[in-house]
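User: Write out your own:

AI:
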Amino acid sequence: MKAMALKCYNILVHLIVIVNMNLYRNAAAQKSGLGASFIFGDSLVDAGNNNYLSTLSKANIPPNGIDFKASGGNPTGRYTNGRTIGDIIGEELGQPNFAAPFLAPNATGKAILYGVNYASGGGGILNATGRIFVNRIGMDIQVDYFSITRKKIDKLLGESKAKQYISKQSIFSITVGANDFLNNYLLPILSIGARISQSPDSFIDDMINHFRVQLTRLYKMDARKFVIGNVGPIGCIPYQKTINQLNEDQCVDLANKLALQYNARLKDLLAELNDNLPGATFVLANVYDLVMELIDNYDKYGFTTSSRACCGNGGQFAGIIPCGPSSSICTDRYKHVFWDPYHPSEAANLILAKQLLDGDKRYISPLNLRQLRDL
């Protein structure tokens, strides 16, 4: 009888140890993992919102997504061959699921607690940006959409827990601005009149003033951890090189100068918001220098070209017609910095994401993204 009681006692102790270990593991996982990733911006991070719009800007056609394992290589609406930079960062920070596109039917119920993707191909900071595509979701509407999500999270968690979840366990990632130049200010069809009447300084003033309001609106809905990407070297994308008939090692000066001018103002804006919005941390992702490093030193990173699109048609760099079923496609997708005339390949996105996650202040400041998550 004594032996039996001792055996039962030992089993019970063993079970308690296992339960406690599991609780500890779960608590540690929860602490180290990202609660939610809320993604805003343009086609660089769109995960499929444009699939649900009547728009000329769509990526839900092959061979887009050919290397996206979660869909078995089928297109999802991502403007690349695999994962976007937002997908990769979410995974690396411990997010168990990709943030669902806001307009997708599965962006409902508890799924939104992993985060939501509001980004839209063709979208920009200014409402006029991207009108050439007929429909797209600009930043003003993306913030409106987040306010809908915010109310749903209140209902799921209760107001007090929801506020804590949004402010402490969520990251707000915003990649926007390139279209305001490419598909607004620099677009000959739409912008020639605007450029006569509006100087670059004045146009960038408009961008910064609109962006300040948009970021402050998110702050007022309890967003506290922000990562904001600046505009990359848009004068070096295959589309710009092709239409301007440049050599492989040349870029369009005006486009890059505008990007750098905006980026300097953006840096000042984020410093201002860090000073004036208590409890908020605005992190600047230096996308311009990161992408320029890949373009200039592509061979160092195992690429064979940083000029030619892997998927596209037209001109020396396959840079005129967007990627689609009739496009020529390279066989060595992981050797191309650019997937199509505008967007990086998954291989490039992996390198960019690594620097944002763990890099130093040249590329991500004042904190990297792992540090931001753990704040």
In short: The radius of gyration is 22 Å. The longest strand covers residues 36-41. Residues 35-374 form a domain with the Rossmann fold fold (CATH 3.40.50.1110).
